[in-house]
Amino acid sequence: MKLSIQVNEGPYQHQASDSAFQFTKAAIEAGHDIFRVFFYHDGVNNGTRYTTPPQDDRHVVNNWSELSAAHDLDLVICVAAAQRRGLVDEGEAERNGKDGNNIAPGFRISGLGQLIEAGIQSDRLVVFGD
Amino acid sequence: MSEVKKFLYVNRRAPYGTIYAWESLEVILIGAAFDQDVTLAFVDDGVFQLVKDHDTAGIGMKNFTPTYGALGDYDINKIYVEKESLEARGLTIDDLQHLIWEDEDEDWAEKDSIKVVTSSELAKLMGQQDVVLSF
Questions:
Q1: Contacts of A121 in chain B (CB under 8 A)
Q2: What is the span of the domain harbouring residue A6?
Q3: What pLDDT score does A123 carry?
Q4: What 3-state DSSP class applies to B7?
Q5: How many domains does chain A have?
Q6: What is the largest CA-CA distance in chain B?
Q7: Contact assignment for B30 to A116 by CB distance below 8 Å
Q8: Which residue of A116, A121, A122, A128 is the best one to mutate when testing the B interface, meaning the one whose CB has the most B CBs within 10 A?
Q9: How confident is residue B2, by pLDDT bands cut at 50, 70 and 90?
């Protein structure tokens, strides 16, 4: 089955990203295709590489980056939600005159159309968050 | 992308306490460009999103609710409000914005976009959807 995942909450504050990660990993292991993972609302905060959790805790951001590297996952951060919350890649930093970027490996910033497209293209869109 | 799917946006939260309502509306407006079969539902505190004449001056936030008035122009005209949620909050349809759309097939006659439905009618509606986005 072709699946897309939507993550609506930030890391650590809320379990949504952890659950989405575990679900995505399990779905891949079960042989399903992941068309896209879309991060919206505070979920965009899952894509900053400046996250530094204590060493004895899971690294939510790195978990996604590593899963993406291993399985060529498309991790998309909503640009409008990201701009509000200070999440920038190189292009966004340049366009908005910021002095650096903070996007984590494997993530890319794009528009809400990517979420709608994921809904159209996938057999199921699975949403994580309250 | 010629396939048309049934998209339902479920709006469950009050308009200003969190950003979900506003960011839901952003998805709805962008999604309108994809020519899908779109339905909106307002339940629980989400019914407050449609209450007319918001005055947000006291909380320093933008009143985004006039944007709902433009939904008809985006061909979004199936807007369902849950009856039980309205009643529990002492609201009636008269407290809500009067949202309309123009029916091309009937010489652009103005029609109401909002329908008040019971929770069981809404449940049936949800069961008919391909994609449900909940905010």
A1: 1
A2: 2-128
A3: 97
A4: strand
A5: 1
A6: 46
A7: yes
A8: A116
A9: low
Instruction: Delineate the domains of chain B, giving CATH numbers in brackets.
Output: 6-134 (3.40.1260.10)
H helices within B1-135, ranges in order?
A: 20-31, 83-88, 119-127
Compute CA B133 distance to the chain's CA centroid, rounded to the nearest angstrom.
12
Asked if B27's CB is within 8 angstroms of A125's CB, the reply is no
Least CA distance to A123: which residue of chain B?
Answer: B130
How far apart, in whole angstroms, are the C-alpha atoms of residue B11 and residue B122?
13
The CATH number that applies at residue A31 is 3.40.1260.10
Q: Which of B7, B20, B30 sits opposite A113 (nearest CB)?
A: B30
The pLDDT tens digits for A84-103 are 999 999 999 999 999 999 99
- A37 included as an active-site residue: no
Residue B93 identity (one-letter amino acid): I
Q: Do residues A47 and A61 touch, judged by C-beta distance below 8 A? A: yes
ipTM over 0.85: yes
Stretch B74-94: mean pLDDT: 97
Q: What is the pLDDT of residue B10?
A: 97
How much is the mean pLDDT over chain A? 97
How far is Cα B24 from Cα B10, in angstroms, rounded to an integer?
A: 9
Chain A residues with CB-CB distance to B7 below 8 A: 116, 119
Nearest-CB residue to B30 (from A112, A121, A125): A112
Which of A80, A115, A120 has the CB atom closest to B5's CB atom? A120
CB contact under 8 A, A116 and B34: yes
Return phi, psi of residue B134, to 5°.
-115, 125
pLDDT by residue, tens only, chain A of 130 residues:
999 999 999 999 999 999 999 999 999 999 999 999 999 999 999 999 999 999 999 999 999 999 999 999 999 999 999 999 999 999 999 999 999 999 999 999 999 999 999 999 999 999 999 8
Measured between CA atoms, the residue of chain A closest to residue B22 is A41
